[in-house]
Structure formats: structure tokens, C-alpha cells
């Protein structure tokens, strides 16, 4: 692949996925077609009969679309509003009606039309809107907009059929860059009154490794004549997805929403379980030895429940140099995709170019075997002069059992004594480091430090927060374990829990600010390039629809769920971290003021902070020299020459800022463990003068300190605190406040670290999530479980197991529920939900069949409640309950499940009926839990 292709392609690839797509295809062609493409061959073979139009069912999507919009919206607000806003889809459509929209001349918009291209791509734009005039006062916020799009989808029966024996097909739908879609029963066939649309999430980031959604038809199609269905799409223009229209190929300032919809059919005569090679995970072999212990095989059930019960090697003569072990029996729900975890171990070197194995599966009625060929890359042992051009692909089990790959560049030279810090490199949004080697190739190989490029789960992940941060740190630990596993690699050992130099570009630059300021003791230095401060600064929320209706204190409580992401608020934690911040002076994608402002905030905390800002004049968002230049190299060299655990310079006075304690590490050994009022910031200011350490706290309930030297005098909030002399070498000293009196806890138990504050903490799981649904689940309920599992797979490659409530209760009783977080759907019909609510461990209670909080009953039948609840058997794990009895409530609850960043969902929410039209203003109650899951008056709205 040529450098020209790379440099040409990257500028938009980090944001606009459409551009990135064509780049992937170019890459596939350039490498002789050997790369994994975005779609799976196995799917192609299942669906081609329909496309050939021969003997089977066929589907066609009309190229003619109706478009209603644009309506102002702020980023991610579509998760609160109805995706069909402003329509009510149970009423007939009126194609002549007008709706108010402040974007349009005269203040109203009506239906228009658009036509898709042959490849299914639909470009929607509104050239009659005076965008430049809106933009002059409102900036990028004025380009955020929502539209409803409608077309028809037609199913044709097989031509020569007796009609009776033809099984009705299911749809397979890929929607790239749309928020949600739904398929409704045939027009004019029956009244759609009372029909609750099933909204499927589109693949809004056009993410790689995204299987299509399996969509059961809402009514069986006719076996004798074509049947038309309505297809509606929620189309939402976001700067982060489509970029600034002054810098696209047309440069006319008109935002173009560009979606791609493709549909095919799945007929039930086809295989019921298939391999999904896009989901396979392997590692490279270095000098004949696997660089990791995890392999993964992607499997999708098209219908039925399947269990992978065993795995066996094939075509290897005994005794085999490698051994495979199925880590866990893997149960796959209908339409679910999972990655089967397989541990690889070796007795001897292995040099073949693939590993062949059989997966043995059972369903309730059948046994089947799937034969898998996993290609592996054999690399020579790295040397000072020779290192693989795409780095080494390593693998490990994330969160106990999720096979995960990452790339590393080995150091040139073995250790010369103690190990040196590693380099942790965070990619930009839309960059898939497995299929796009350019990111690892942009990073210079280091003399004695490893360079580690994690996936962050996926190309977007959670913007390097939550599970993406967890993945970043876990890859560092995994590399330590891999290098330690083989004696001949010990010359290159990392320190255990090594400190790192964290760098990143774009979303990864933002991630570098994030990780450095939340884990200051593990970060030796940071090089954030072209990063943004936080989402609300990137594109302001001023065109919020809900803001015109919402009680401002409620808005404040909802927006407290963004606080843990707000990098500016945590700059106090960086005063002792060397920083080299970089931004191109003409960045068209992340405005240059972000880095200037971040550095300014830091320098306000401490004018002597070792932070250097380099503005590369005239450069845009990406330029190949961003890290590849003398000042970056000099900074890295001076920093990486230190030991991995060396002394850190410490200011005489510093302030530790924390929002959610479980999402933050220590600063100079000080750690905040819990807050007096969760939802508000907590700060600890430490001043050291000779033998005197004085600590001032704000909103802190407990904190700890490692290594407090004997003989020092400590004051906390101006009161001297006596430390028991018999504790000679304390590992952790824990301080707690009761009745405004600080005390030292002498008993050294593992501190309980507060992990609530927002719903998205449910994603921070140490094992696959369990999705628990009622025993007598309806098709809708099964679909809800399948859709959240699908979203977890596409957006985060987080594994989930779907189980029924009786199974969950059985596991609870036998102590085998596991340590993973749990999501429970349904109302009192879910016996697991009922069981865990009995103890009233949160202010939510069940009386009869109704849910109450502080005496308030969950409202109308279409309402839903979402809340975090303690795990019944594991202290540090969480349950998220999505409590809803009716379909409409379930659909709303599902859309607010915290899959994407920037959706404002604190610990608990009561969703009312009016959210469809007024978004977050339709919330009936919301709040953050207090300490120990108590009612938190200051941070609640009911
Ligand atoms: C706005 O209203 C004026 C006066 O009724 C009319 O002449 C004009 O065509 C309208 N513009 C649009 C874009 O509808
Ligand atoms: C899966 O395997 C891991 C590692 O052997 C084990 O810790 C875990 O308990 C297993 N989980 C289940 C659900 O069997
Ligand atoms: C800032 O940090 C860099 C990297 O460690 C180091 O080379 C430089 O000397 C530091 N500057 C100051 C003023 O401490
Ligand atoms: C000091 O710690 C020891 C051991 O935990 C305990 O027995 C003793 O009572 C403590 N003394 C004070 C003054 O707290
Ligand atoms: C499930 O349905 C069956 C049959 O309708 C019924 O006997 C059983 O009690 C139901 N179970 C639960 C937990 O509702």
C-alpha cells in the first residue's frame, strides 16, 4: 500500500466513515483482496438466491424516498425523542401537512423527495435552507438536524410455487449512518393503530464487523403476489459523523446526510447457524510462538438456540504442538452473534499458516459441526534492525473471556536494567487498527519501550472512556503476561503495572487527555494531538429541543452524567504530568482552540505545569508528521529514558478531582473512594511542607493513601489526625468522615469504591453481560434482548449471554451467576427482577405489580424506568433494570440503554409518555444514587 493512498485517505477517515469505507475497499484491492472485507462471505452465500431472482423469495427497496425535515436537534437527542418525530406512525400519513421548523424560511417544513443511488446510498440535503445564515450565529450547532425518511420495501413470492409450502422469509437489513429504522405492516392493509414500531439501531458509525439486523416481517407476505411494507428511518445529521460541509468534496456549506440501506432475505430453508469470519480473533506467531493466548471464532445463530459445547483441532498429526481449549460453553440466542473463546497453548513451535478446528454445536433438535480455518501470520523473531511493518498482532481475553486483538511494536533493544515505560497509542474515531495498519505505522519504533495500540473495543468504542479505557489498560497487562510467558522474550520484559506514555490523535487525543487525567499515577507523560475537550464543547447543545420545555434543575441532573467525560474539569490532576499538546493550526475537524483552551485551563491550575503546546501552523486535522518530528521524538526519548516505576516529581500542593471514583485512579498515592453527594465533583487538595501534610476535602466521604511515611503530621480539614503507630508499613490507609469528623480506619479491608453515577457504568463489566428476560417472554421481549446484544457487539464488541429469569435465579442460588454485570428487562413478570427488588436495596420498590420510588408510582402503561441496582452476589458488579410492562415502554427503555457517548442518563430515570415529542423534558424523574444506593436529595428530581 502506498504512502500516497494513506495520506490522501486519512484526513476524513478519522471522522467521516463514508470516506473511510472507500478507503478500506481501496486497501483490500491494494493488498490483493486478502484482507477481511466488511461483509461476510457466509452471508453472501445465504442471500444470493434472492438477488438472482430465480426460484426463491425476492426483496426490493424502492429508490424513491419521502423526506420530512430538517428539524433542530442536539447530538444524541434522538435517543430520547421518537425516531419518527414529529410523526405518529399509528396515524395515516398526510403528505401535504406542514410542521414547524426554525431552520426553514417562514418557519415550516413539509415533505420532499429524494432518490437513492444504485448502491442503496441516499443523499439527503436541504439546499433551500439558508445554512450560512443560521451558521453565522449558531455555528456548528445549527447543522445538527433530524429528518424522517420513508420508502417502501417489497417482497416477491417465488414465481412457481404452490403457495402453501413457501416459508415466509425474514429481512436482513444493513443501515449505514442512520440512527434507527422500522418496518411496518403493508399500507392500507390493516389499520396500524396501536401497532408499536420495533425500532432497530442503524450502524450509525458505519462500523466494521457489523452483521446485518435480522428483521422478522411484521406480517407474513402474500405467497401469490408482491407485498409492500413501509420502511421508516430516523436520519440525524451530526458533525461528528458527516463533518463540516465547508470541507467536504462540494465545499458549499450544505450538510448532506448520506445513508446506505441494503436489504436481503433470509429464508428458513437455509442453515440455522453460520460462521462469521469478520468476528474471528487471532494473534500472530513470533518465531513459532503465539503472541497471546486467545483465539475467537465468530458464530451467528440465524434461528434457534445453539450451544458451542466443544472444540477440536483438525488436520494436525499427533503429538500436536498446539492445544486448544474452549474457555466456556457458549450459548447463542436466535439471531445473536458471539465470539467463541478458545485458549491456545503450545508444547512446541508451530509454523503453519493457519489453525484448523471444528466447533461442535447443539440445538434442542440437532447436532452440527462447523469447520473453521483461522489464518495466522508467522513472523520471525524481532531484532534491533528488523520489526514487522504492521507490528505484531497480539491477543488476550478481555473481561475474563472476550477474545480481543491489539497491535504492538517491539523495542529495538533488550532492557539495559530496569524496564522503561511503555507507549500507549490511542487511535482516532473510525480507525480500525486491525484492518488499517497505517495507525501503527505512524508510530515510531522506540529504543527500549514497547508501543501498544489497543482497539479500545472498536473503531469508536466509548470514546476511550468506560470499557475502552478498561481495554487500554488490560492490553498493557496482557502484553506483560505475554512477554513473561516465554523465557526468550524476558530480555524485553515490561514492569508489572508499568507506567505508560499515552499519546493519541483526534478522538484518541481526547482519550489521551482523559486517561492521563483520570490515572495520573500510571501515566508518565501524555502527547494529546488534535483532541477535543468534551462533546458539549465540540458541538454545543444549544439547539436542544428538550431545553425549551425542561426544568433546568432536571437538565442539570441529566447532564451530570456527562461530568465524568468532561476533560477540562479534571485538569488539576495533570499539574505534575509532562505534556506535549499538539494541534494543526487549520484543523477543519476538531477546532484548534480546543487544545489551546485545555492547556490554558491546566496552566491556570499551575503556571509551572510542564505542559508544552505546539501549534503546527497551516496544518489540518491529520498530517503524517504529527508525531514524526524532532520535538516529539526528543520529548519521547527524554521521557522514556526513565525507569517504568521511577520517582515522580510532586508539586508542594496539588488537587485531585474525581467524579465517579471507580473511573479514576490515584494521584501521588491519594485516591478518593466515595463521595458525600455523588453526582457532584469531589476534590482533595494536598499540601506538603516538610513533615506536615495538610489535606482539604470537598464532597469527599472516604479516601485512601499509599505509603504515608512514618513520623509525618497529618491534618484533614484543619484537624490533626492521629495515625496508629502500630501500623508500620501501611499498604492503604483509609479515611472516612462521619458527623463531620475524619477518622482513620484501622482495619485494612479492600476499600469499597463507589461505581455509580450514570447508567453507562453498566458497560464496565469484568465478564460477559447477562441479559435476563422473563420466562414467558413475548417475541417483542426476545427481540429487545437480541437488539441490545446486537448493539453491544457492533459498538463495543462486548459479549452478552441471554438467559431466562428462572435460569438466572437458579444460577444465583447455586452461586454460579458469575461476576459480570446484568441487564434485566420486563416488569414483575421477570422473576429475577422481582427477586432482587424484594430487599429494597435502592429506593425502588414493588407493591403488587407496580413500581414505586419515594411513594411515586411509575406512570402510565407506556412508561419505563431504567436504574442501576446492586448485583445480588458480587459487591463491585451492577445490575441495570429496564422496568416496563408494555411494548412502547420497552422500546423507549431500549433506546436509552447507554450504548453511545453523550446520551444523558444518570443512575435512574422514569421515562414518561411525552418524551416522543419533547425529548428529555418528558422525563418524570431522574437522579444519581447516594452513598450505598441511598436516596440523594440534592441530585434527584421527581
Ligand atoms: C414565505 O412566505 C412568503 C409570503 O407568504 C412567500 O412568498 C414565500 O414563497 C414563502 N417562502 C417559502 C420558502 O415558502
Ligand atoms: C468462563 O471461563 C472462565 C475462565 O476459565 C471462568 O473464570 C468463568 O467462570 C467461566 N464462566 C462461565 C460462565 O462458565
Ligand atoms: C518536561 O518534561 C520533559 C519530558 O520528561 C522533560 O524533558 C523536561 O525537562 C521537562 N521540563 C521541565 C521544565 O521540567
Ligand atoms: C492501633 O492498632 C492496633 C491494631 O489494629 C489496635 O489494637 C489499637 O487499639 C490501635 N490503637 C489506637 C490508639 O487506635
Ligand atoms: C408461563 O406460562 C405457562 C403457560 O402459560 C404458565 O403455566 C406459567 O405459570 C408461566 N410462568 C410464569 C413465570 O409466568
Automatic annotation (TrEMBL):
An example Gene Ontology biological process: proteolysis
SUPFAM superfamilies assigned: alpha/beta-Hydrolases
UniProt domain Peptidase S9 prolyl oligopeptidase catalytic: residue ranges: 456-624
One Pfam family it belongs to: Peptidase_S9
Secretion signal span: 1-30
Single Gene Ontology MF annotation: serine-type peptidase activity
Keywords: Signal
InterPro entries with a match to the protein in the record: AB_hydrolase_fold, Peptidase_S9_cat, Plant_Biomass_Hydrol_Est
Protein name: Peptidase S9 prolyl oligopeptidase catalytic domain-containing protein
Organism whose genome encodes this protein: Wolfiporia cocos (strain MD-104)
Amino acid at each position: 500500500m502506498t504512502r500516497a493512498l494513506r495520506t490522501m485517505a486519512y484526513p476524513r477517515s478519522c471522522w467521516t466513515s463514508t470516506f473511510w469505507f472507500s478507503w478500506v475497499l481501496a486497501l483490500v484491492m491494494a493488498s490483493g483482496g486478502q484482507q477481511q472485507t466488511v461483509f461476510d462471505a457466509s452471508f453472501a452465500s445465504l442471500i444470493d438466491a434472492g438477488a438472482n431472482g430465480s426460484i426463491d423469495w425476492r426483496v426490493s427497496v424502492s429508490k424513491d424516498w419521502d423526506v420530512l425535515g430538517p428539524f433542530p436537534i442536539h447530538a444524541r437527542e434522538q435517543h430520547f425523542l421518537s425516531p419518527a418525530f414529529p410523526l405518529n406512525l399509528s396515524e395515516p400519513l398526510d403528505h401535504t401537512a406542514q410542521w414547524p421548523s426554525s431552520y426553514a424560511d417562514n418557519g415550516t417544513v413539509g415533505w420532499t423527495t429524494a432518490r437513492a443511488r444504485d448502491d442503496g446510498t441516499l443523499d439527503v440535503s436541504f439546499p433551500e435552507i439558508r445554512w450560512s445564515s443560521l451558521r453565522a450565529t449558531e455555528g456548528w450547532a445549527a447543522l445538527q438536524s433530524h429528518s424522517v425518511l420513508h420508502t417502501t420495501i417489497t417482497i416477491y413470492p417465488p414465481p412457481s410455487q404452490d403457495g402453501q409450502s413457501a416459508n415466509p422469509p425474514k429481512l436482513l437489513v444493513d443501515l449505514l449512518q442512520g440512527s434507527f429504522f422500522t418496518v411496518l405492516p403493508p399500507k392500507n392493509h390493516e389499520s396500524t393503530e396501536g401497532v408499536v414500531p420495533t425500532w432497530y439501531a442503524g450502524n450509525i458509525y458505519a462500523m466494521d464487523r457489523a452483521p446485518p439486523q435480522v428483521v422478522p416481517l411484521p406480517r407474513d407476505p402474500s405467497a401469490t403476489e408482491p407485498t409492500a411494507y413501509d420502511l421508516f428511518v430516523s436520519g440525524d445529521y451530526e458533525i461528528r459523523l458527516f463533518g463540516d460541509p465547508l470541507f467536504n468534496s462540494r465545499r458549499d456549506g450544505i450538510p448532506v446526510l448520506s445513508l446506505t440501506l441494503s436489504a436481503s432475505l433470509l429464508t428458513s430453508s437455509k442453515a440455522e447457524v453460520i460462521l462469521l469470519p469478520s468476528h474471528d480473533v487471532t494473534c500472530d506467531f513470533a518465531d513459532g510462538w503465539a503472541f497471546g493466548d486467545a483465539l475467537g471464532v465468530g458464530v451467528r445463530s440465524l434461528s434457534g438456540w445453539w450451544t458451542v459445547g466443544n472444540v477440536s483441532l483438525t488436520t494436525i498429526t499427533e503429538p500436536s504442538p498446539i492445544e486448544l481449549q474452549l474457555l466456556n460453553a457458549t450459548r447463542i440466542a436466535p439471531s445473536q452473534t458471539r465470539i467463541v473463546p478458545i485458549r491456545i497453548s503450545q508444547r512446541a513451535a508451530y509454523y503453519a499458516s493457519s489453525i484448523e478446528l471444528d466447533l461442535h454445536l447443539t440445538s434442542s433438535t440437532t447436532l452440527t459441526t462447523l469447520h473453521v480455518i483461522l489464518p495466522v501470520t508467522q513472523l520471525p523473531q524481532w531484532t534491533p534492525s528488523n520489526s514487522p511493518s504492521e507490528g505484531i498482532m497480539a491477543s488476550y481475553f478481555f473481561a475474563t473471556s472476550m477474545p480481543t486483538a491489539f497491535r504492538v511494536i517491539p523495542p529495538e533493544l533488550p532492557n539495559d536494567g530496569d524496564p522503561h515505560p511503555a507507549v500507549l497509542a490511542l487511535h482516532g474515531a473510525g480507525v480500525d487498527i486491525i484492518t488499517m495498519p497505517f495507525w501503527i505505522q505512524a508510530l515510531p519504533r522506540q529504543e527500549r519501550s514497547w508501543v501498544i495500540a489497543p482497539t479500545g473495543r472498536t473503531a469508536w468504542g466509548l470514546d476511550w472512556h468506560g470499557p475502552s479505557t478498561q481495554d487500554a489498560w488490560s492490553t498493557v497487562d496482557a502484553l506483560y503476561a505475554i512477554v513473561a510467558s516465554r523465557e526468550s522474550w524476558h530480555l524485553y520484559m515490561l514492569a508489572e503495572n508499568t507506567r505508560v506514555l499515552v499519546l493519541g490523535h483526534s478522538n484518541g487525543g481526547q482519550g489521551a487527555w482523559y486517561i492521563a487525567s483520570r490515572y495520573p499515577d500510571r501515566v508518565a507523560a501524555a502527547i494529546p494531538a488534535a483532541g477535543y475537550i468534551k462533546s458539549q464543547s465540540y458541538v454545543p447543545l444549544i439547539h436542544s429541543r428538550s431545553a425549551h420545555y425542561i426544568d433546568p434543575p432536571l437538565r442539570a441532573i441529566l447532564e451530570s452524567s456527562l461530568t465524568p467525560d468532561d476533560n477540562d474539569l479534571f485538569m488539576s490532576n495533570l499539574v505534575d504530568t509532562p505534556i506535549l499538546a499538539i494541534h494543526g493550526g487549520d484543523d477543519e475537524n476538531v477546532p484548534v482552540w480546543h487544545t489551546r483552551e485545555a492547556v490554558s485551563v491546566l496552566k491556570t491550575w499551575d503556571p509551572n505545569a510542564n505542559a508544552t503546546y505546539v501549534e503546527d501552523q497551516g496544518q489540518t486535522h491529520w498530517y503524517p508528521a504529527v508525531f514524526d518530528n524532532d520535538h516529539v521524538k526528543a520529548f519521547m526519548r527524554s521521557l522514556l529514558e526513565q525507569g517504568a516505576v521511577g520517582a515522580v516529581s510532586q508539586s508542594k500542593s496539588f488537587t485531585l478531582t474525581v467524579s465517579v471514583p471507580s473511573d479514576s485512579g490515584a494521584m501521588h498515592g491519594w485516591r478518593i473512594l466515595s463521595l458525600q453527594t455523588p453526582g457532584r465533583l469531589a476534590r482533595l487538595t494536598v499540601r506538603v511542607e516538610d513533615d506536615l501534610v495538610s489535606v482539604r476535602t470537598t464532597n469527599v466521604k472516604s479516601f485512601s493513601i499509599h505509603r504515608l511515611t512514618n513520623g509525618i503530621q497529618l491534618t484533614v480539614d484543619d484537624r490533626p489526625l492521629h495515625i496508629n503507630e502500630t501500623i508500620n508499613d501501611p499498604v492503604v490507609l483509609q479515611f472516612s468522615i462521619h458527623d463531620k469528623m475524619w477518622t482513620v480506619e484501622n482495619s485494612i479491608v479492600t476499600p469499597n469504591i463507589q461505581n455509580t453515577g450514570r447508567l453507562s457504568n453498566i458497560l464496565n463489566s469484568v465478564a460477559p453481560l447477562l441479559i435476563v428476560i422473563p420466562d414467558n417472554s413475548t417475541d417483542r421481549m426476545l427481540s429487545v434482548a437480541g437488539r441490545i446484544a446486537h448493539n453491544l457487539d457492533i459498538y463495543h464488541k462486548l459479549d452478552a449471554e441471554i438467559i431466562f429469569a428462572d435460569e438466572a435465579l437458579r444460577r444465583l442460588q447455586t452461586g454460579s451467576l458469575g461476576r459480570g454485570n446484568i441487564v434485566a428487562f420486563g416488569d414483575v413478570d421477570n422473576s429475577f427482577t422481582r427477586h432482587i427488588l424484594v430487599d429494597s436495596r435502592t429506593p425502588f420498590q414493588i407493591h403488587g405489580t407496580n413500581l414505586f420510588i419515594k411513594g411515586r408510582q411509575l406512570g402510565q402503561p407506556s412508561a419505563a424506568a431504567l436504574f442501576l441496582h446492586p448485583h445480588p452476589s458480587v459487591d463491585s458488579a451492577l445490575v441495570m433494570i429496564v422496568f416496563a410492562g408494555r411494548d412502547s415502554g420497552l422500546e423507549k427503555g431500549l433506546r436509552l440503554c447507554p450504548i453511545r457517548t453523550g446520551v444523558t442518563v444518570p443512575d435512574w430515570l422514569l421515562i414518561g409518555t411525552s418524551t416522543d415529542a419533547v425529548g428529555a423534558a418528558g422525563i418524570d424523574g431522574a437522579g444519581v444514587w447516594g452513598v450505598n444506593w441511598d436516596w440523594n436529595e440534592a441530585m434527584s428530581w421527581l
